[in-house]
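Hi team,

Below is the intake form for ADP-ribosylglycohydrolase from Prauserella flavalba. Please confirm the fields before the structure is written into the shared record.

FORM ID: S-0412
PROTEIN: ADP-ribosylglycohydrolase
ORGANISM: Prauserella flavalba
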Amino acid sequence: MSTPSPQEEHYAERVYAGVLGKLIGVYLGRPVEGWPYADIQHRFGLVERYVSAELGLPLIVADDDISATFAFGRTVPDNAGEPPTAERAGRTWLNYIIEDRTILWWGGLGRSTEHTAYLNLRAGVPAPRSGSTEQNGSTLAEQIGAQIFNDAFALMLPGDPERAVALTRAAASVSHDGDALDAAALLAAMRSLAFGERDLGTLLDAGTLHIGSATVLRLVEDVRAHCGPHRHWREIRDWVDERYGYAHYPGPCHSLANLAMTLGALLGAGDDFARSVAIASSAGFDTDSNAGVVGCLNGVRLGLDALSGGPDLRTPVADRLLVVTADGGECVSDATLEADRIVAASALLAGGGLTDERPRFRFRYPGSVQGFTPCPHLGGDHTVLTNVSTPDGRALRVEHGGHVSTPVFLDPAERLTHFSTVASPTLYPGQRVVALVSAPGTGGAVRPYALYESAEGVVTRYGDELRAGSEPRRLAWEVPAVGNLVPFRFGLAVAEEQGAAVLVHELGWAGAPVRFGQSGILLGSIWDTTPPALRPWVSSAKHFEADFAVTYSVSHPGPGGVVTIGTRDWRDYTVASRLLFSLHDTAGLVVRARGHRRFHAGVFTGGDRVALVREHDGTRTVLAERPFPYDRDRTYDVRLGCAGTELALTVDGTRLLTAHTTEVLGGAAGFLIDTGTILADGFHVTGTPGTGHHHTPPRKAWA
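The structure came back. Fields below:
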C-alpha cells in the first residue's frame, strides 16, 4: 500500500473536515427544519447544540442533504474513464433512487423539483433537459436543490474552480436551471478554492466570476455590503428575510432566499465554525440544508481543528451518516469512508486508477472514530475512546475497558417509522472479521462480539478472547449465524485491567460470506407481511413480502423490479433459491448489484428460455441464452454463480449456461421480476473459497 505524501494527506484531511462539517450542520439544523423562525427562537434561541434528544428524536437520521450529496457524487467513480456529463449524472439518479422512497422529497409532479426531474428521467427525458426551465418552468428549476446536493464534486477538484463549477453545473442540471445553477456555481468555486484560501472575501470575489445572472450578482453584493461579524446574527437574519425571504420568490424553497441566508451566516460568523452552523440552524429558512452548506465550506476553509472549537459537535456524531439508496449495503457509512471515496474520485478525475485496497476501519484522520462509541446496548459509560497517532499511522485507543461498538446496520434504538430508511447490513453471518490490536504497557484482553435484533430483544454473540501485547496482533472471527437474523452492531469487549488501554489499528472484512442465508416461513401473521427478517432487504419491486407458503413473494407491475441484500464486498459467490413462477415476463436471481440498474442476472423468460444477462443503466444485454421450457407453479432449484469473469446458471442440478463478463466488481445479490410475481423458498449465499473472506480485509475505495 502506497504512503500518501504530506500534500495528499493535507488534501484528504481537508476533505474529511468538509464532509464532517456538512454532517454537523445537517444534524444541527435537521430537528428544526420547517419550524417558523419565531418558534425556534422561543424554544431554543441560538441552536448551538444538538436539540434532537430534547424533541425525542435520534441524532443520526436519514436526510436528503446527506444521501444526495454522497450518492450523486458516485457519478464520477461509476463512470470511471468517461466524462461526468449531465446525462451520466441522470443515469446515476435512476440507478440509486427508489421511487417514492429514497433520497428525494416526493412531493409530486410540478410541486417537488427533484420528483419532477426524476419522473422526466423515468419517462426518457435525458438530463439536462430533465431539469430545464424549458421543460419544467422557472419556478421549479430555481428551487434550492442545486446548491445543497452537489458538495462532493467541488471537494474532488481542489484549487480548480473552473472544473469544479463545470462538474457541479452538469450534475445540478439534472434537476435545476437558471439562477439555481449560478448559486450552485458560486458555492462550488468557493469550496474548491477553500483548500488553499482562508479569506472569505477573497473566496467570494473569485466565486462571483462564475455567476452569469445579474440577479444573483446583485444579491451577493448586497449581502456582502450588509452582513458581517460586526452585526448581531438576528439583525442579519431579519435583514435577509426582509430583502430576500421566501415571500419574494415563488415555490416552497427558493434557491436565492437560501443563498442569501447561507452567505449571511458565513459572513456573520467570520472564522468561527460553530457559530456559522448555529446561525444557519437558527434562522429559519431551510435550516439543515443551509447549515450543511455552511459547515462543508467552513470545514474545508478553516480546517479540522476549527470543528473542535466551542461546543463539542464532533463526539455525538462519531462520524456517522446514512446514504439511503438502492445500493443498501452502502447505507451505513461514516465520514472517513466518504472522504476517502471523494479522494479516490479526485484521483480518477486526474487520470489515475482505483486506489489501493484498505481495511474499512483505519481511523485515518485526527479525531476519527468511524462510528465506534461505548456500546449503547451493553453499557460502558466509563469507557474512553480517542484517536491517537502511532508510528504506523493512527489508531483508536480504548481506555478503562468495557464494550465499544459501531453500527453495521440500522440500530433498532434509532429507528424512526416516519422516515423511509432502507438499508442492508455491511456485515453478515459467515463473514470473517479481522483486526490488528495492541495493548502497550500492561497488556489487555479483547473479545469480538455482534448484536442481533430478535422479536424478544437484543441477542449478543461473542468470539474467543485475544490477549493483546505491545506489538499488534491479528484477531480473526467468523460472525456466527443466529437463525434468519443479521447483526446490527459489531464491537469489541475490552477486559477491565488496571491501567490497560487497547489500540485498534485497523479492522474490517472482505468477500462474500462463507455461508449466509434465510429460510423457512418468515410470516408470523397474515396481517404482518413485512416481518423483521425482511428489513435487511432493499426493494424497488412494488411488493416484496413474506409469503404464507414459502419464504418470499416478489411482485412488480412493470419492468425492473429488483430486490437485493449484500454489499460491494461480495464479489465471487453463488446465490441459490427455490423459485416458483407465477405471471411474469422475466424473473430470476441477481448478483453483483450496484444499485438497481447495474447488475448481472440469471433469468427465466417467456416460459421457454433461460439467459444470463447484464443490466447497465437500463440496457439489458444477453450474455448467453438457450431454450428451456418451464412451467408455472412448479418449483425449480436455481443457482447463479459469479467467479472472476465467469457467470454460471444451474437449474435442478444441471448447469445450463455459462458466460463471461468484463465487469468483475462486487455487489449485492437478490431477485429480479419484470411484470409479474415470483415466489422464492429460501435464499443462500456461499462465498467462493480463496476470494477474500479468509484473509486480512481490504476495501477498495469507491469499488
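SUMMARY LINE: Residues 380 and 402 are 5 Å apart (CA to CA).

Thanks, M.
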